[in-house]
Amino acid sequence: MDKLWAPWRSKYIYSRKRKGCIFCEKPTGKKTDRYVIGRAKHSFSMLNLYPYNNGHVMVAPCRHVRSLELLSDAEITDLMRLVNKMKLKIDKLLKPDGYNIGINIGKTGGAGYAGHLHIHIVPRWVGDTNFMPVLSGTKVISESLDAMSGLLKKR
Question: Any idea what the CATH number is for the domain that residue 38 is in?
């Protein structure tokens, strides 16, 4: 049996449950924001640390809210404008064939962080689902988060 080594995943597998909210910790402007790739007045975008594909971005309001109806009109507009801006940036730089863009609301709805609304932007390419996830439950991500962050931040 062949093995695909992914030692960076062990941090996720063995980590204790994080206290606090990753989205509330990120928009502070500190050095730890290295995967925050976009900011707007009421929202920000960041790379997903455990992406489904290269360029998997999450866009979240700065305010900690669990559902869309809790956002003001200004926050919703700002959030969707940033989603569009990130999609256009990914279009230009990564040239995907399509996207999955969506919101998981509540734990049962699939939200890993159910307390803070966020929108996933997952670029897709023809053939990006191949034998690896089907036969072995393994997804191959070809770029590191540092490389992807550098690419999406510089333009």
Answer: 3.30.428.10
